[in-house]
Amino acid sequence: MAQNDVVMSVRDLSVNYLTERGPLQAVNRISFELHQGETLALMGESGCGKSTLVMALMRLLPSNARVPNGEIHYTTRDGRVIDVLKMSKGKLRAFRWSECAMVFQGALNALNPVIRVRDMFYDTGRAHGMGSKDAVRERALELFRLVRLDPERVFNAYPHELSGGMRQRVLIALGLLLDPQVVILDEPTTAVDILTQRTIIDVLMAIRDKLGFSIIFISHDLAVAAEMADTVATMYAGEIVEIGPVNEMFYRPHHGYTLGLLEAIPSLAAEAEELVSIPGSPPDLIEPPPGCKFHERCPFAVERCSREVPPLVDVDETHRVACFEADRVIAKARETIQA
Amino acid sequence: MKRYLHLLLVAALAFAVLGMMAPARTTTAQEAPSGVFSGAFDYLLPPEHHLNSFARGGLGTNLSSTYRSFVELPHAFYMWASNEYVPLLGESWGFADDGSYYWTKVNPDAKWSDGSPVTADDVVGTYTIGRILGWSQFKYIDKVEKEDDYTVRYYFIDQPSLVAERLILKEYIVNAANYADLIAKAQELIDSGATPDDDAWSALADEIREYRPEQLIASGPYVYSLDDVGDAYMTLHWQPNSLFSDSVNFGEIRIWKGETEATTPLVLSGEVAHATHVFPPATQEAFQDAGIRLITIPRGYGPALLFQHDHYPWNIKEVRQATALVIDRAENAFLTNGMGATPTVYMSGLADISVPTWLPQDVIDQLDRYEFNTERAEELMRSAGFERNDDGIWADADGNTVSAEYKFPAEFNDFAAASLNAADQMNEFGFDITTRGVPWQQCAEDIRNGDFELSIWSWASGSPFPARQFWNPLQRHNYVGLAEGQKGINFPMQFEWNGEEVDLDAMITATGAGLDIEAQKEMAGKVALIINDMMPFVPLNYLVSVEPFNEKLVAGAPADDDPILKNPSGSDHFIIYDLLTGVLRPAE
Amino acid sequence: MWRSYAFRVTVQGLLTLWAVTTFTFVMIRKMPGNPVEVVIDQLIDRQQLSYEEARQQAAGLFDFDPGQPLIEQYADYMNKLLHGDMGKSISSAGTPVANQIKRYLPWTLFSVGSGLIISFTLGVLLGMAMAYWRGSVFDNVLTAAASLMYGIPDFIIALLLLLVAGVQLKLFSMEDVLGGVGQDVHAGLNLPYLKSVVQHAALPVITYVWGTVGGWILTMKSSTISTLGEDYIMVAKARGLPERRILTAYVGRNAMLPLVTRLAISIGFVVGGSVIIEFIFQYPGLGRQLAMAIGTRDYTTMQGIFLVIASAVVFSNILADLLFGMLDPRVRVGGEE
Known about the structure:
Strand content of chain A: 15-25%
Number of domains of chain A: 2
Low-confidence stretches of chain A: 268-273
Largest interface: B-C, 67 and 61 residues
Number of strands of chain A: 13
Oligomer: heterotrimer
Helix content of chain A: 25-40%
Structural class of chain B: alpha+beta
CATH class of the largest domain in chain B: Alpha Beta
Mean pLDDT of chain B: 92
Strand order of the largest sheet of chain B: 17-16-18-12-21
CATH topology of the largest domain in chain A: Rossmann fold
CATH topology of the largest domain in chain B: Dipeptide-binding Protein, domain 3
Radius of gyration of chain B: 27 Å
Largest sheet of chain A: 8 strands, mixed
Low-confidence stretches of chain B: 1-28
Number of domains of chain B: 3
Mean pLDDT of chain A: 87
C-alpha cells in the first residue's frame, strides 16, 4: 500500500492512569498506521490496553488519564492532516463521529434508555450540522436497511424495546450516520448469540465494502478477526508486541504471545483437541517487570528476555515483532499450526 | 425650588384641613390614649376564633383569663394579700342577712361599648345561658333574679358559700342584647320545666355554641373585631364608653400569638412587654441579660408525688413519711424549673402563701417540716419493720422490697424533671424506683383510674380558699371526688387519727362551708395537721410564674414587695387590675 | 388501555382513602384522652371543680358525646363524608372542618410547595454540578455543607434565624416575618398584599429549604455520579454531542429518575405542612392546625386534615406514576403488556 493513503498514524503513544500507587502505564509507546479501507484487529487479553488505546484515538479517556508522549495524526478526505491530541474542544467535538466513529458493545448500556432511537440520531445529526431532521431520518432509514433492520419500527422505538442483536445493529447504523473514514468497533459480537453474530459480521463486511471506511476493531474472538481483518496487532501489557497482515499473523506468528493466543482458539477442525491457555496472569502495570514484559509467562524466554526490552523489528515490509526468540517461536508455530 | 414650593403648599393645605377637623373630633369623642401594651397568648385564628362569649373558640379561649377582663368585666377582682374583693363592673355585693341568697349590684355608670347601660338584665341573661350550658355556679344556686335595674339575686340551694361568692363575682358579664334570641329561648325552656336530660335542652345548647355574634359589645375599655385577629398578633382597640376608659393608659392592647418557643424571640426583641408563659431557666437568664425584669408570682399549684395507696408499702404511713424526708426539696425545686419553683416549706396540703392567712399559729408551730434527713427516715423505716437487704434496698421481714414504677407525663418538662429527680433521690436512699414517661393524657387517665404505683400531678390550686386547695389531690384524685369506678390514689378518707375517728372528706368540705371564717380556719388547722402527719402525698414544690416584664416599654409595674404580687397568675393576675386602673402606663 | 388504567387507579385511590379514613378514625379514638377529657382537666385545674361537675360543664361546651359507641360514630361520620360533609370542629364548636381546611391549606401549599420546588431545583442543580466537578473544592465544600445542613434540625435553624437575624442583628422586625401576611394590607390581588405574603413566607421557606436541600443534593450527586459512569454518556460524548445536550437529556434525565419517587412522596406530604416551622413562625398552615387538633383531641378536625393529607399522597402517587412513565419509557404505564 502506498504511503499517501494513510488515514490515521499513531506515533510513540503512551497513556498513563494516575492511581494511588503511582502512574499505571496502560499504553506504552505504541505506533501504527491505518490505511484507507484497511481493517485492523487488536487482539489481547482483557486489561492489555486495547480499550485505552481506542479511547485515546477519540480522546475519550477518563479524567485521571494522561498522555505523556506520542502523536496521533489523522488525514481527512480532502487531505488535511489533523493532530488529534492538540485539537481544540470545538474541533474535537466536530471530529468525533463525523471523522472517527465508534461502535460500542450493544449488550452494554450504550443507548440512552429514556429517549427514542430516532432522538439519538437527531441529536447526532444536529450536533454535526447535518441539516434537517428529514435528512437525518432518510439517512438513518437507509442505514437500517443496510444493517437489515425494520427501519420504521426501529427508528421510533425505545432501546428497551429492541433485542441485543438489534441494538448492536442500531449502534452500527448510528456509527455510520455521518459517513466517517474510521470506525472503531469495540467487541461488536460479544454477548450476542451465534446466529446474530454471523449476521452482524456479514452486515459489517458488506457495508464496509460498500462504503469503504477503515476499521479498527477489538475482539477476543480470533475467528472473527481472521475473517474480517486485513491487519492484526497483538497487544500485551500496553504494548504492540507483533503486528502484521492477517495471514502472516495467523500462520507465521513470530511472538510467543501471539502463538499462545492462537493455541487458545477452539478450532472447529480439531474439536476434541485440548485448549492450551497461556499460564500465568498479566504483569503489574504500575511496576512492570524489567525486560520483555511477557518473559515470565513465555515458554521461549531466555535469560536475556528478563534484562533487555526487545525492540519492535521488521520481519518483513509489513510484519514486525518485538521478540528475541522469534526464530524459535516460528519454528514451534510451524509445528503446531501445520499439524 | 419649584418642587420645594409645592411641598410647602401641600403642607399648608394639610394643616388647614386638619385644623378644621380637629375641633370636630374632640367634641364627638375622647382621644384614645397613646401607647401600646403588648402581651402574648396562643389565641386561635378565625374560623376557629369567633366572638361568642359562651362557646369554646370564643372570648374565653382566645383572651385567656389574663386579657378577657379588658373586654368583658366581671363584678370584682380579688386581692390575695388582703382577702378582699375590689370593684370592677360591680359597685357593691354581699350575702343576704339570712344567707338565703347572694346579691350583686352593677355600677350604674357602667356602659357597653355601644353606649347602652349595663344592667341587671345583662347579668341575668348571662346566667340564663350559663344554666343551659351547665355552669358550675348552679351547683350552689338555683335561681338568678333581677331585684332592680342594677341588682341581681342569686338564691342558694342550701347554705351560703364563699366559694360560690367567688364564682359569682368573677364571672364575666355578657351583653344580653347580643344574645337576645338565645336568652329568650333559654328562659322559655327553663320556664317550661325542662331538664338538662331533655333533647330540647341539648339542642338549645348546640344552638348557643354554634351562634356567631357579628360583633363584640364590650363592657371593658377595649373591643375588637375578627378583622383585628391577625396571624402574628391580634389587637384590642380602646373604646370610650367603659367605666375604665378614662383610667387606662394604652390605646391598644396587642396580643402576640404563640406558645413559649414563639414568644421567646418576641420578648427578647422588645416586641412583647409582658408574657405569662413558662420559660425554661436558660431563657429566664437570657431575659435578664437583655435587661428585662422578671416578676415572680405564684402559679397556685405545684407538683406532688402521688402514692398509690393500694400498692404495698405505700399504705404504711412511716414509709410515706420517710419518702418525704429523703427527697431534698430544694434540689428538687431547682431541677423542676430553676427560679420557677420553690421548695414546699410547711407540708400542710395548703400552699405556703396561704398558710399564714388560714392556719392558726399553734398549728403552724406543730407542723413537721420534713427537712431532708436520711437518719430520721432510716429510723422510721426500721420502726415499720424494714431493713436494708444485701443489695442495699429496703425490705420488710418477708423480703418484700420497697419498689415501684414512677409514671410521669413526659410532655410537661417541669413535672418530668421533678419526677426523675425524686426517683433518683429515693433510689439513693435505698428504694427501688423505676421511671416511665407517658403522654400526659395517658398519665391523667391512669391516675384517675388508679393505674399507677407512683406518679405526679398537681397539689393545691389557684383558689384562695383552703377547701379548694386541700381538694387537690385528696378529693380531686381520690375515690371521693372521681367518677364511679375511678379510685385515683385511693387514700382512705375515714380513719382513726390521734384516737378519734375522722372523716377527712367531710372535714375538707367543712373548711369551705358557711360564712364563719374563724370556724373555717380552725377546721383548716385540723386538716393541715392530719395531712402533715399522714403524708398521703408529698407536695414536692410550689410553682412560681417567672414573667418577663419589659420596663423599657411599660412603666408602673408593681415593686417586688407590692402585695398585689401575692395574687397568682390566672384570673387574679395583677396585670388585669393594674392595667385597668391606670397603674401601668407607657414608658417614657 | 388508558381507560382501564384510569379506572384501576381511581378505584385503588378510593379504596386507599377509605382504608386510611377508617384506620385513622379508629386510631385517633384509641389515643389516650378525648376532647372532653382534655377540657375536663382544664376546667378542674382552673375552677377547682370535682370531676363530675367538670364533666357536666364540659358537656355543655361540646356537641360531642364520647360515650357514643364507636360504630355509631363511625357510621355517622362516613355517612356525612359521603355527602361531602367533613363535619364540624369539636373544640371550636360549630366551626365547619371544611372552613378550617380552606383557611389553612393555601398557606401550607404556598410555603411548603415553593420550598419544595426551590429545594428540589437547587438540590438537582448543585448535586449535578458537584458530580461533574467531583473532588473539586466546590464539591468538597458543598458536600460538607450539605451534610451539615442535613444534620441540623429545622427548628434550630428557625429559632436561630429569629434570634440572630431578628433579635440580635435586627435585620427585620418581627411583625414583618411572623404569620402568613401582615395585618395592614388588604387581601386580594394587589401588590402590597402579594409582597407581604412573599415576605412572610421567606423565613419558613428558607428554613424548609435548609432542612431538605441537603438530602436532594446528596441524592442527586450520587445518582449523577453513577449515571456519568454509564456507557451511553461515553457514547454521547463520542458522538460529539454538545455538553448541554448531554447534561440535560442524557445525564440529567437519567440521574433524576430515582429522585422522582422521592419528589412525589414529598409532594404528598407538602399538604401536611411543616409543624415546627409553622409553630415558630406563626405561619397559619395546616400542619400547625393538625398539631393543635391532636393536642385538644379534636377528632373531626384531625380526621379532616388526615383525609386531605391522604388524598394528596394518593394523588401524588398517581402523579408520580405518570411522571415516572414520562421520564422513563421502561416503566411507562399502560405500556406494551
